Amino acid sequence: MSKPAASASTSFQRIARHATFTIERVYDASPSRVFAAFADDGAKLKWFGGPDGWVKTAREFDFRVGGREYHSGGPAGGQQHVFDAHYYDIIPNERIVYAYEMYLDTTRISVSLTTVELKPEGTKTRLTFTEQGVFLDDFDGAKGREEGSAWLLDKLGQSL
């Protein structure tokens, strides 16, 4: 899949807003099971994606250091939301580090570095999700991204 081109329009003032947020969840599952929900294609399909009713238009999943994950989709007839990630560090059952770009149609709206850490807590797992992002030209912001990430992590918990 080729990635969308960045918007070339300069009819507005360019701005880059930086933010970091951290979300924690405790799941009633082992670290290996939570890790598998990220690493296994079928398991990830159960929780990672847009709201019910969104149409998926393209997908790629290569979970390995140097691999790429790509999703595009959106409401029928509406804007396409594109997630284009590259994996940089994977320690099974412990840590995942990836960088990703988000687009609305062909406009890049953010670039982020994300770290997912898994720690055992008895028979459960504490997941710590930290995102460091730059949100471009006010198309998106940290608050909305944090809410969306929390929603996905709740869906992850339901899938476990």
Describe the fold and architecture.
It is a single chain. The chain has helices spanning 31-39, 41-45, 142-159; strands at 16-27, 55-61, 68-74, 81-91, 95-104, 107-121, 124-136. With 160 residues, the chain is of the alpha+beta class. The protein has a single domain, classed as START domain (Alpha-D-Glucose-1,6-Bisphosphate, Chain A, domain 4). The chain has a seven-stranded antiparallel sheet with strand order 1-7-6-5-4-3-2, with helices on one face. The two termini are 30 Å apart.
CATH class: Alpha Beta
Relative strand content: over 45%
| CATH topology type | Alpha-D-Glucose-1,6-Bisphosphate, Chain A, domain 4
- Write down the overall mean pLDDT: 91
Number of domains: 1
Give the number of helices: 3
CATH architecture: 2-Layer Sandwich
Strand line-up across the major sheet: 1-7-6-5-4-3-2
Q: Strand pairing plus helix content: what structural class?
A: alpha+beta
| Fraction of residues in H or I helices | 10-25%
Organism: Ferrovibrio xuzhouensis
Pfam family, one: AHSA1
Domain Activator of Hsp90 ATPase homologue 1/2-like C-terminal: 28-157
Protein name: SRPBCC family protein
Which terms summarize this structure?
about 20% helix; alpha+beta; single chain; 7 strands
